[in-house]
Records
---
Amino acid sequence: MPLLSNAEWFERARGAIPGGVNSPVRAYRAVGGTPPVIARGEGCRVRDIEGRDYIDYVCSWGALLHGHAHGPVVAAVREAAGRGTSFGAPHPGELELAEEVRARIPSIEQLRLVSSGTEAAMSAIRLSRAATDRPRIAVFEGCYHGHSDSCLAAAGSGLATLGLPLSPGVLPEVASRTTVLPYNDANRAREFLRAEGPSVAAVLVEPVAGNMGVVPPDPGFLETLREETRRAGSLLILDEVITGFRVARGGAQERFGIGPDLTLLGKILGGGLPAGGFGGPHRLLSLLAPEGPVYQAGTLSGNPLAVAAGLTTLREATSQAYAALERSATALESGLRAAAASASVPCTIQRCASLLTLFFTDRPVRNFQDAKGCSTGRFRAFFHAMLRKGILLPPSPYEAWFLSTAHREEAIRETISAAREAFQEAAAQPL
Ligand SMILES: *Cc1c(COP(=O)(O)O)cnc(C)c1O
């Protein structure tokens, strides 16, 4: 292809690809402008087709715990590819990955691999309905569990950004089986489960919300969900697609001490290749075909390349790696706070481990309503100022920034110094 600018490429892509993208948030509708078209990445940096470099805080939406083209991951994928890219048959790597996951997350006795987080959620919901013989599920506003029909009653980040509360094409009778509750409202969840529990198969929750920006659970919120689902005979499904292997070695369930019935995994699990998974006790997972009657399958499930990337990523996620991530994230958080203060821009920075969101508001953000109350004008100005200075942030105010172990001191310093000027531009916008 001849050398194109980002804008030329994108214009042409819009002819052949819907909206020019294969996932809507990439189109920059929330911030305006044309997305940089990424030609390559290395460590914490990416380069666009115009040759411009950026420090990347998208990191494939959290999948890249060790940054781009991490040496050991690339080597493992190369080696696996040389042995054959897909067999549609059992292979040694998938057992190694299942055992590695089990060792980190004790609530997972058995793990079924799929190819995305969407598939993990969809399959776990089917399993929960079969296990309980109940039709309904509950989710929380601002959480995202992929784009299967049952989950599109819960407005995800992509949808929230586009301002579509419910997608056309999702049948009302399907969406009506999904109840959407406010995040961090333990009382509402309790009331709901006490009243409607007998028809509720499962409650799904992001243990640290990452799809309305980072919103940690209030003390007692997850504990109430655990207690009330148990009492109601409903399953508690922790969606750890973002938090798994990120907020702790064993995910949010380790960090907060919550034992779910089922866990959803994705993103880091595939180390930048397509993989998802869902797991729990043998008692539940044995209901899946071929042991049990619940159908679930996938041509590329357990794909050898994805398994090699995921396994290598997890093996490199040592306690030293988590400690280094925590140091970088702490430095970024405190640097951003100081920069905002010196520009007199009110903002709320919420962080859990290496997940962070900067909200343009002077109040804490505890749920989706709070998140929607933030200044989008200021976010846009800040976002584009950062982009011009070579810092690539997630292009929506409702997203987490993801750090990787490749984000070291120098990159953090560069980011903070860019933020000092970007806050000045944001300050010129009304709150
Ligand atoms: C990304 C995400 C999903 C969906 O995963 P895909 O691989 O994009 O289908 C599900 N749940 C959460 C919490 C996510 O962040």
---
Amino acid sequence: MASPQPLAGLKNIAPYIGGESEITGFDRIVKLASNEGAFGPSPKTLEAINAIGNDFHRYPDGDCNELRELISERNNLPKDNIICSAGSDELISLLCRSYAGPGDEILYSAHGFAMYPIYGRTVGADIVAAPENGITVDVDQLLAHVTEKTRLLFIANPNNPTGTYIPKSEVQRLIDGLSKDVLLVLDSAYAEFVDREDFSNGAEFVTANENVVMLRTFSKIYGMGGLRLGWGYAPDEVIDILNRMRSPFNVAYPAMVAGVAAIQDDEFLKMSQEHNIKWLKWTTDSIRDLGLEVPDSVCNFVIVRFPEDKGTNATAESADVFLKSKGIIVRRLGGYGLPDALRISIGLEDEMKIVVEALAEFVGK
Ligand SMILES: *Cc1c(COP(=O)(O)O)cnc(C)c1O
């Protein structure tokens, strides 16, 4: 019997698997699986959200004028080149739909963010993964994997799930070597956490080039993952296309209201950054002291590796099972080509102490 058929290839897409959020039988669960920011939304954001009350029967401003104005002011970027979105995921999707199709190639870095290949496949493009230098983006490998068919190149800088970054000199080298008809997407979801002199959030490269886009999100340091709010900064032509492609009311009113409050809460941002610097270092050092391998991270998470050649029975899987038995949820990274690693978000002070204590028990220290 005839039946409706989806576009070719859609059935081969493995859907995104988010961090788990529930295990039963615990009074308290320590959830460190989705990098959502240690504190949740800022007090000013909560105030603004609560003030909405029942006032949401009107359609929102489809152009997000107030929020774009604030993003523009705070980042010193032209408002007309800013677009807001239902999470930065929406922009990844819109970019794929706008710039690639069947027969085209979308290039990314081997341990890059999962949504690039997922959205890339939805438009029928071929996904090409360039090998990394260890677990860090390798500019030479990316350039070596560009072909005549490459339309889009995605890198998260710093990258999730590895926590690594490339300095701005390397981003510049990538741009210099890249054909001008390839759109480079710099996904800076974790930019606010990075405490390095040689890092750029990518905005300067958008300003200086016609083929570079920067993506940002309110889901991580602003603790607003549940509201779905992101934004992008792009050259005129790209902004024009994205505005044609997006839904007319792609950002929900509560998300807009929350974003306006969040971006003005400098105190919360600073507090979150300082917290992360302190507990990222503490967590890294403490887990290394247990004899476990923790690569340097500049994000609000670390990965812990359990390489097989260490000759112990400790694997990422057994560690994960052990942590779960203690009510602690972290992230397995098999889907990212890192089956020997767990990713642990930086949470509150007591959460980090609980997870380090549990890992100490796991390795018998
Ligand atoms: C979390 C994350 C996103 C998605 O953020 P949303 O704004 O919640 O859609 C994008 N890129 C990277 C690298 C992320 O880790």
